[in-house]
Amino acid sequence: MTCMLQIRQLSKRYGGLLATDQLSLSLASGELHAIIGPNGAGKTTLIGQLSGEVAPDSGAIEFDGQDITALLPAQRALRGLARSYQITSVFPEFSVLENVTLAMQAHRGHSFGFWTPMLAQPALVEPAVRAIAQAGLSERCTSKVSELAHGERRQLELAMVLVAEPKLLLLDEPMAGMSHQESGNVVRTLQGLKGRYTMLLVEHDMDAVFALADRISVMVYGRIIASGTPDDIRNNEEVKIAYLGEEALPL
Amino acid sequence: MMRNTLTAWFVALVVLMLLAVPAYARLANEPFALTFVSRILVFALAAVSLNLILGYGGMVSFGHALYMGLGAYVVGILAQHGVSNGWVQLAATMATCALVGLLTGAISLRTSGIAFIMITLAFAQMFYYLFVSLKQYGGDDGLSIPARSEFGLFSLASPLALYFTALALVLLSLALTRRLVVARFGMVLQGCRINERRMNAMGFPTFRYKLTAYVLSSMLCGLSGLLYANLTGFTSPAYLAWTLSGELIVMVVLGGMATVFGPLVGAITLLVSEEILKALTDHWMAVLGPLIVLVVLTARRGLYGYLLDIDAWRARRQRAAANATGEQP
Amino acid sequence: MLGFVARAMTTSLFFIQILNGLQLGVLLFMLSAGLTLVFGIMNFVNLAHGSLYMMGAYFAASAYAKTDSFILAALVGIAGSAALGFLVERVVASRLYARDHLDQVLATFGLILFFNEIARWVWGASPVYMNVPPALSGTINLLGISYSAYRFAIIVVGLLVALGCYVLINKTRVGMLIRAGSSNPTIVAALGFNIKLLNATIFALGAALAGVAGLMSGPILSVQTGMGEPILITAMIVIVIGGIGSVRGAFYSAIIVGLIDTAGRAFLPMMLREFLDRSTAQAAGPALASMLTCIFMAAVLALKPAGLFPVKNQ
Fold it and tell me: Using 50, 70 and 90 to split pLDDT, how confident is the model at C182?
């Protein structure tokens, strides 16, 4: 089992707040690893440090065998580390197809093409259409993003991270704000991706987490207090205490 | 690619009218009409260049008059030294604007938002002072251009040649813009405007694309300066004034940002409005100022932008009607 | 180089240029402080700030011509620009806080055109002259050097204003509201404070500061339409160098820029004559001097794109 992601003693402080506290974690290739924890545990800060938008104070991040701690987000993206956003961050003026094709374009050569329309290039459009289908959004391919429902926009987020076939997917609350039915669709989609992609999933939806995860880590106040299989976590006393009154663990 | 849409008809009408201006000027014995519309076309070309980075790219440059001024001064200085070959002047203008654009752009684009606006304004002002202090080229009073640009087959000394050159360049730049904005480069540029954070996260090195757009824009704007110097027979530091930069922005916004045809509509509207106001009162700027404020508060999409919106609304209605009839058993 | 030092720079000339630089610096600070405050708190870029500077000068010049009392003229200038600032905020600026910077730039650009033309209409196109108040028309003796009493007064007033800003922002309740409003206006409003009044007050305060700068500049520059924009651009350079939103940054940066600009104009042409022939130096000297602040800004930005004292935002 090769190690796809290795986080060593990562720390990040915001003034008086220690958002990430000497955090260490490793992900095996093809694993779907979920991170759960109460609000304010520092999950999004962790994702930010992995994607490169937040610089850690100390510690190292190794991705696919290479130290990427000093790399910019664009550089990490080109090496196959893709991130989706908790608050949808797409291109509202473009259509669904344009959004996903643009995401593909980042990985296919340079963009100093001044003449041929982007949508007339099969090398870009075909993978985009496939990713849109994978995310379950095919009927809305040519719709403008402003016309999409919230759940559909989250599906677009997913399509945009899938299109370039990344090695690691950082999924920041992909089911945020979704209805039960919409979440079900996303769970099915992610199930279909298991094994082919390595995924780090931050989520509050416990049904989804326990249905999908190979391993779960529980984060509280910037530290991981427990890490293991879903069964391990289900029976862990410290985890129950951390969650008492917040969410019910599925039986 | 002509569709039966409001915008297609509007574009056709405008182009036809522009083609008819020289004939009108001759028949009605109004040479001023030719000079005036030439001026509109020159500014339209500058507005097209600004629309590329401001409308499509989201880079609010408040110093674009710099490149118009540079173009005009290249012509003036070369003519002063006896070089009136248009091709040489053109090459020199492109090179100068590209170089200045590269240097100022590389520095300015390290910032964004309000800092970028202020820095572009400062750089333009810096060159303004430079030209004011160049006494051998007229300084504050400006420089009379002894001879117009000669291009071999035609000369910009002829008002007719100048008019058609300007018109051809405007139409060409509009057509090229149309291709560019949906090509790879244009999509990246627009992406940088809409959501730069996501562009970076997706893997685009945004700085190089923005800088490229900035340099291309400065070169096109320099071309408009070359034409302007030929039109007025004159160049002066006033061509780099910040007020001119502001007027260019008004043209782009008034016409409709991130639309192909907007800059031409904006240039026509603003310059015609100014002429009307000037005829009404000496204090026309006291009227123009509040009008600009009003436009900002109310007409955000720009005139051509509204036409596009109307077409889009009509298209949606037609689709909805087609769906409704399709569903009837 | 040493020959130049020995020949051109007497101690008193050097010291006078330092003082002149300081004087320009405090004027720039007064102009920049309002601009950076309004930007830092309401996220509003006000290009018409130079117009408020100009109107302060015009109001004071007219009042001085009519009453012969500089104190009265100063009060009229300050009150007038503050009132004008309040009006601009209520009628135009407040509608644009939520809009993007382009809209704000365009709208305030329109205001500049309006104010410049109104000034030309009311006061005419020729410059209006304002005399130095008789009490300050002499020179004072500073460590053996004779310096214009009026310019010294500007320095004193400027430093007092800077001190006043520091006390206001850091030591008073209003200042606390200002700082709170800058990071979280919704909470300030939710706590029951009248955020609209607070914003209008801050805007008017910035306008008053610009008015002070304007009226004090009156006697040493000429009061004319369009006088606000060149110095506004320098003020923008000051803010960019200092760090947008930072009043402290604006202060240090204004002093630095004032010194560089003054020293550049005074010494650069002389220095160039050491290296270049006379006619080239004649042409290049003033050009480079006026470009100096901009070049300095470019150098700062190359190393620190967020300015020397950037304000930490979320």
Answer: low
> Which residue of chain A has the CA closest to B191?
A91
Structural domains counted in chain C: 1
Model confidence band, residue C314 (pLDDT cutoffs 50, 70, 90) = very low
Which positions in chain B touch C306 (Cβ < 8 Å)?
111
Are both A36 and A69 inside the same structural domain?
Answer: yes
The interface pTM score, or ipTM, of the predicted complex is 0.89
Q: Which comes out higher in pLDDT, residue C217 or A242?
A: C217
pLDDT in tens, B118-168: 899 999 999 998 998 888 888 889 999 988 998 888 888 899 999 999 999
Percent of chain C residues past pLDDT 70, beyond the cut: 93
CATH code of residue C35: 1.10.3470
**Contact C94/C185 with Cβ under 8 angstroms?**
no
Instruction: Determine the distance in angstroms separating the CA of B33 from the nearest CA of chain C, rounded to an integer.
Output: 27
Is B273 within 8 Å of chain A by CB?
no
Residue C217 domain flag: yes
What is the count of structural domains for chain A?
A: 2
The answer, yes or no, to whether residue A226 has pLDDT greater than 50, is: yes
In a domain, A215, yes or no: yes
B133 CB neighbours in chain C (<8 A) are 283, 286-287, 290
Contact present, B254 and B302 (Cβ < 8 Å): yes
The model's confidence at residue C3, banded by pLDDT at 50, 70 and 90, is low
Name, in order, each residue with C-beta under 8 angstroms of B71's C-beta and a sequence gap of 6 or more.
B93, B97, B221, B222, B223, B224, B225, B226, B227, B228, B229
What's phi and psi for A24, nearest 5 deg? -130, 140
CB distance A43 to A35 below 8 Å:
yes
Per the domain annotation, does A15 fall within a domain? yes
Model-level pTM?
0.89
Strand partners, C79: none
Tell me the per-residue pLDDT of B241-299, one tens digit each, with 9 for 90 and over. 999 999 999 999 999 999 999 999 999 999 999 999 999 999 999 999 999 999 898 87
What domain range includes position A130? Answer: 90-165
**DSSP codes, chain C:** -HHHHHHH--HHHHHHHHHHHHHHHHHHHHHHHHHHHHHHHH----TTHHHHHHHHHHHHHHHHHHH--HHHHHHHHHHHHHHHHHHHHHHTGGGGTTS-HHHHHHHHHHHHHHHHHHHHHHH-SSPBP-PPPGGGSSEEEETTEEEEHHHHHHHHHHHHHHHHHHHHHHHSHHHHHHHHHHH-HHHHHHTT--HHHHHHHHHHHHHHHHHHHHHHHTTTS-B-TTTHHHHHHHHHHHHHHH-TT-HHHHHHHHHHHHHHHHHHHHHHHHHHHHHS-HHHHHHHHHHHHHHHHHHHHHHHHHH-TT-SS-----
The answer to whether residue C101 neighbours chain B at the CB level (below 8 Å) is yes
